[in-house]
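Quick one: examine this chain and its backbone structure tokens and tell me how the chain folds. Here goes:
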Amino acid sequence: MRPLNKMSIIITGGGSGIGAGTAELFAQAGAKVTICGRRQDKIDAQAKKLGANVLGVQADITKDEDRKRLIDVGVAHGGGLDALINNAGNMYRDPITELDEDALVNIFQSNVIAAMQLTGLAVPHLEKRSGAVLFVGSIHNRRAFPGASPYAATKGALEALTKVLAAELGAKKIRVNCVVPGAVFTEINQRAGLFDDKTAKERLDGMAPIHALGRIGTEREIAEAIDYLVRAEWTTGAILDVDGGLGLGLTKD
């Protein structure tokens, strides 16, 4: 596995949650990390917290000009590009009988289309370093949560992309993988206006008994899996579940 201290990495949605935890792990190991988010104050605060190896960029990855600027800045910061971690995403929930078309288009734009376009821009730089692309899936494709069909559909699309792009980009020596987290406390539901922090945490903690390991996960545990997939040089097309056994469908005797 290649050493992290020689790597240049871009992480979308790096201002909080799994993105921030992953940026912290990589930066502590000496990698040059570029994180992005829509809120300037939040992304600046996170970059300052993580130290000189981390550069924060205010960017909305649903906008073409912001995607291009993010790639340019990340390549300049790290002297090239070894990995793109497509972590940014939004949540939209509604019953299938009440779905709003504009909201559906927006979540596919933010969770799937933006990541595809950003990956395309990164390819010429990743090819020079035999780099890696990482998508972040979801337990929603292992356990069925009623009302979450829009979000689950976007995450299912990312799993399909992982396989197709691993085949497509293999000739360029670019590896493409996907990590599928279980229940981890992040801000995605709060940003969507579904819960406040307290309610969201209580809801997740209430899921602990249906994890085979009896607890929810941490940002760091997902970051460690991302670390492996980014650095393992003979792993591509992999979809790695890191969910404490939540996806097993645990039942009581």
